[in-house]
Design goal:
- The protein has about 80 residues and is mainly beta.
- The chain has a single domain, classed as Alpha-Beta Plaits, CATH 3.30.70.
- It contains 2 helices and 4 strands.
- A hairpin with a 5-residue loop joins β2 (about 30-35) and β3.
- The longest helix has 5 residues, at about 20-25.
- The structure holds iron/sulfur cluster (SF4) (2 copies).
Length: about 80
């Protein structure tokens, strides 16, 4: 059976570092990085992309629609 893999694009300049997306991920693979955007907010990064299923929970809860999720089938 094909496995679904996810990939995220995070619009870091729009992010306000609220961390809501971190708690929404069922696999806890998002964390706030040390880098900040031009407004001084830390933005998230994926720490274990291999485990991302593309479920899009993170994108759904983001109040600023900063996250776009792409899903691909792995054979
Ligand atoms: S798409 Fe789902 S599994 Fe991937 S980082 Fe977002 S919440 Fe986590
Ligand atoms: S929920 Fe959105 S605004 Fe909040 S930290 Fe995540 S990407 Fe940034």
């Amino acid at each position: 059976m094909a496995k679904i893999k996810g990939r995220l694009e995070i619009d870091k300049e729009r992010c306000k570092g609220c961390a809501v997306c971190l708690t929404a991920c069922p696999f806890s693979i998002l964390e706030l990085g040390r880098e900040v955007n031009s407004k001084g907010y830390n933005y998230p990064r994926v720490v274990d992309l291999e485990r991302c299923t593309g479920c899009a929970s993170c994108a759904t809860v983001c109040p600023d629609s900063c996250i776009t999720v792409y899903r691909t089938k792995q054979l």
